[in-house]
Design brief:
By secondary structure, the chain is mainly α. It has helices at residues 18-46, 53-90, 106-147, 151-184, 188-229, 241-281, 287-310, 321-347, 354-380, 385-393, 398-430, 435-449, 453-476, 481-527, 550-591, 604-617, 620-636, 639-675, 685-728, 733-763, and strands at 95-96, 102-104. Strand 1 (95-96) and strand 2 form a beta hairpin.
Length: 790
């Protein structure tokens, strides 16, 4: 009896024929093509004009700050990864064939999986590094194109800058998985889990660190600049404005690219893991379940390449949104045509209409991507009622502004859950009662949702590129009339694309986590050598997670609480770092009064250093929470409680991520709606209230919300890594309690240390900076003492 396919250490019984090798080579070649297209796009962007000397000077400051931060962050991450790589090795198991012989020994499995883990980290980090590296160069070139009055040229530069990140994301992701399958074949599932874990962990680091940096700078810049000093956004007199622009890149470029890379990888890994067992359960050739996800992914890459080049504005286009939507639609249609053709010709319909079912699952994912994107757009667009209602509420003060945004975010979460649940329901229905095959279709739904990732990453990176371009235009003081209108238009569209892609990332994270959860159940069956397959596997008492069991229910409760603690840590980090930024900017205004009349220049580097130091200092605690909590539950209670824990993390994490992202996006655009001249316009009481709402929403939408995506997947992957050990030690109370106790002590210490750092930062401010809560009597009295950020 061949063991069930498991995410952790399962041996997959299949044989690669000539057709399968053709598709593997096709997949690898497509991945290489995507990387080559990325280099070609990079060359085109770098060849564009950089504008005036003043614009180049501002852009250089942003480049230096962004690259300095990212290099320091990677050095810090490198240190943290060393013990985690050891953990990956120690949690490995030997891989046995169906006859009981070893396919991989413990040492071989550990070494190869650890190398795959490091490769996943490297590729995830590389996508973020390359994407951000070009974004900080494409921003000034976008502004230069707009300066000559050409929307098509500015859009081309900005979107193709994002296209580089998109191509490297899909190219490296597909190439890594394909090579692992080519090399390891029947034991690839044991190695792929390390690759996915590496990508997810690095995404978590980049999301948390980048989110803290960008929002601390943004909040500090807004509170002192807009509300206290009464100067515009991106005004060069604000010492935090360069850090704010740097943060746009380290948060939205590097963070999102790594986030979608790991979602892209995790859904592919889950599909490959589940596919062999799924096709065996219907009596079909199991290798079809392994190869089809790779083919579908390769077709999506080709469609994304066409989609990126399809984004072209005409002189008749008044907004960049129309050509961007055309590019996304083009990629989606090509993906549907290509995957359906392969499903019907390669997979076929010889047993249970499996060809139509796998094609249908991919289409469901593409439709879900559109639905989630449109829902996000509805709740965050200035053209829609929710944002305008918040803007209207701002007329009566900050309290009603915040309340209106919270209610809008809560409401948006409900419809997002309904959309995802409906997609999962349809995918399960296609399985026709076979739960094992249904869960494979769920994984393929995630594949479909992420099929056009190349275009989605391009859209997301377009946001900070256009935002930075608008900032460079504002700080240079050289843009008027039509060029200024083009920059405002691109910035507005960029805000929309950023919000839409955040919703997309959340939805794809949930689908990926559900697929990983299915792998968790199959791993239990494999470890206990359960002989049932198909639906019978999930009805076996050993694999059933019964929440009526008090121990299991405890796991459920703790899992539901973890996303709240994680969000609290992230938001607290932003709050205290922003307070330090506020103090520093106030100090510079006080000690250098010539800044306001342009006779003195702010010390931009001081704020960048504050944000960098704080962001890197805050990395460890959220990472430990993600890695150690499953260890505590699994070893401290049992494997069924760990399963319930994961289910709760997926549910509350998705709800919290949607609420935080959409409420924050709505507050942001309500502020912009007022700045466009509505509800009293800039400088009005409504505008001041909207700025406070936006400030509250900043860490919601750009720090805690996005970071919950990798948190969910990291916890699922850690659980898969430790599950064999949890099961094998279930009767050894001394060993398992010792492991859980040690993990608990480390986690409590990390959380306590994180809370103490807030007190230390208040007690010891940077040289020359007033303590938190201090108020300068000479400053503009736009904030009362009660409204002060500290």
């Amino acid at each position: 009896m061949t063991k069930l396919v498991a995410a952790e250490g399962g041996y997959q019984a299949f044989k690669l024929g000539g057709t399968e090798w053709f598709w593997l080579v096709f997949s690898a070649a497509t991945a290489v093509l995507a990387v080559l297209v990325g280099f070609a796009l990079m060359r085109g962007v770098l060849a564009a004009d950089q504008g005036t000397p003043k614009m180049r000077e501002i852009a250089l400051a942003i480049q230096e700050g962004a690259m300095a931060y990212l290099k320091r962050q990677f050095r810090t991450i490198g240190i943290i990864l060393i013990p985690l790589a050891v953990l990956v090795f120690l949690t490995s198991t030997s891989v046995l064939r169906g006859d009981g012989t070893e396919a991989l020994s413990f040492a071989q499995s550990g070494i190869f999986r650890t190398l795959a883990f490091l490769a996943g980290c490297l590729m995830s980090g590389l996508t973020g590094f390359i994407g951000m590296g070009l974004a900080v160069r494409g921003n000034v070139r976008t502004a230069a194109a707009a300066k000559v009055g050409s929307l098509p040229a500015a859009l081309k530069v900005a979107f193709r800058t994002g296209g580089v990140a998109g191509m490297f994301t899909v190219g490296l992701g597909l190439f890594g998985a394909t090579v692992i399958i080519m090399v390891f074949q029947n034991t690839a599932s044991a190695i792929l889990i390390g690759f996915g874990f590496g990508g997810s962990l690095l995404a978590l680091f980049l999301r948390v660190g980048g989110g803290i940096f960008t929002k601390a700078a943004d909040v500090g810049a807004d509170l002192v600049g807009k509300v206290e000093a009464g100067i515009p956004e991106d005004d060069p007199r604000n010492a935090a404005t360069i850090a704010d622009n740097v943060g746009d890149n380290v948060g939205d470029c590097a963070g999102m690219a790594a986030d979608l890379f790991e979602s892209y990888e995790v859904t592919l890994v889950a599909s490959i893991i589940l596919g062999v067992a799924a096709f065996r359960s219907i009596g079909a050739n199991p290798v079809l379940g392994l190869i089809f996800p790779l083919i579908a992914r390769a077709i999506g890459v080709l469609a994304s390449i066409v989609g990126v080049f399809s984004v072209r504005a005409t002189e008749n286009d008044k907004s960049a949104m129309a050509p961007i939507n055309r590019g996304f639609l083009t990629a989606g249609v090509l993906t549907v045509i290509g995957t359906t053709a392969v499903a019907l010709t390669y997979v076929g319909n010889h047993h249970a209409n499996e060809g139509w079912k796998v094609a249908g699952a991919v289409v469901i994912g593409l439709v879900l991507a559109q639905v989630v994107s449109r829902l996000t757009e509805y709740y965050t667009s200035t053209e829609r009622a929710p944002v305008r209602d918040i803007a209207e509420a701002a007329r009566t003060g900050p309290a009603t502004t915040v309340l209106s945004g919270i209610s809008s975010g809560l409401e948006s979460t409900v419809f997002a859950v309904i959309a995802i649940a409906a997609a999962l329901g349809v995918a399960i229905a296609l399985g026709n009662g076979n739960i094992q095959f249904s869960l494979y279709l769920v994984a393929l739904t995630g594949m479909g949702m992420l099929a056009t990732t190349g275009v989605v990453v391009s859209e997301d990176t377009f946001g900070p590129v256009s935002d930075n371009a608008a900032g460079i235009a504002e700080m240079s003081g050289e843009f008027e009339s039509e060029p200024a209108r083009i920059m405002v238009s691109l910035d507005a569209v960029g805000n929309t694309t950023k919000a839409v892609t955040k919703g997309f990332a959340i939805g794809s994270a949930v689908i990926a986590a559900v697929a990983l959860f299915a792998s968790f159940i199959e791993t239990i069956g494999s470890e206990f050598n359960v002989k049932e397959t198909g639906s019978a596997l999930f009805h076996n008492p050993l694999t059933q997670i019964n929440v009526a069991d008090p121990k299991t229910f405890i796991g459920l409760l703790i899992g539901g609480a973890v996303p709240f603690l994680f969000s609290a840590l992230a938001i607290r980090a932003v709050g205290r770092t922003a307070g330090t930024v506020v103090q520093e900017v106030r100090r510079q205004f006080r000690e250098h009064p010539g800044i306001m009349d342009y006779t003195e220049k702010p010390e931009y580097g001081r704020v960048i250093d504050i944000c960098t130091t704080a962001a890197l200092r805050e990395l460890a605690t959220p990472a430990l929470l993600a890695v150690l909590t499953p260890v505590i539950i699994g070893f401290g209670i049992n494997y069924l409680a760990l399963g319930a824990f994961l289910a709760a993390v997926i549910l509350t994490g998705q709800l919290m991520a949607n609420f935080l992202s959409n409420s924050g996006g709505a507050w942001d655009n309500a502020k912009k709606y007022i700045e466009d001249g509505h509800e009293g316009g800039k400088g009005s009481e409504a505008h001041k209230a909207a700025v406070i709402g936006d400030t509250v929403g900043d860490p919601f939408k750009d720090t805690a919300g996005p970071a919950l995506n990798p948190l969910i997947k990291v916890m699922n992957l850690v659980s898969l890594l430790i599950l064999p050990a949890v099961i094998s030690l279930r009767d050894n109370d001394g060993a398992r309690f010792a492991i859980a106790g040690a993990a608990l002590v480390v986690l409590i210490g990390a959380v306590a240390f994180s809370k103490r750092k807030a007190e230390a930062m208040d007690a010891v401010a940077p040289a020359g900076v007033a303590p938190a809560g201090a108020h300068e009597p000479s400053r503009d009295a736009a904030l009362t003492a009660e409204e002060s950020p500290r």
